[in-house]
Amino acid sequence: MGKVVMYNVVSVDGFVADTRDQPGPLFDWYVNGDLPLDESGQLTVSQASHDYIRPFWDAVGASIFGRHVFDMTGGWGGKPPGEVDHAVIVTHRPAPEGWDPEAPFHFVHGIETAMATAQELAGDRIVVVAAGEVGGQLLAAGMVDEVRMDVAPVVMGSGKRYFGSVDTQYVLEDPDVVIQGSRVLHLCYRVRR
């Protein structure tokens, strides 16, 4: 089994979106560089960011998201974000009516089922968990090995927290990756066991 990584862009004060679920300027660094990050060419980042993120994205076999994010994005048009092979959606509801059953999305109930499904799909590749409520639940359940943050130089003031509603203290190891991109700081921490 591959490792499980909680990942997202985050503000300096710990938010992944504002109170209206909008990222605001958090994603500005995705379009301020010269190197294309994905096949669309719409995401262009600095050399430092590209060299850090592209190999990470290439190593991901499955991602886990909550249904709220899935609905907000319109299911990413049927293609998991970051060019990932599979997306597992934690939900109490079935796939949306008219959803393409061939799309690489798996709708499951509960974080344990989501993790088991994602690990089976990913094999020895990385499972990425979107930070926020579902990510916080998986961290609290002891299922996260690593926390990766792309810290944008933004203070949101309030909004959706990176760790969701986690109300217990967790200690992370010292960062083993600290990379400065253009308008972003990439950090990686292992979860202390």
TrEMBL record:
SUPFAM superfamilies linked to this entry: Dihydrofolate reductase-like
Record-linked Gene3D superfamilies: Dihydrofolate Reductase, subunit A
Domain Bacterial bifunctional deaminase-reductase C-terminal: 89-169
InterPro entries recorded: DHFR-like_dom_sf, RibDG_C
Protein name: Dihydrofolate reductase family protein
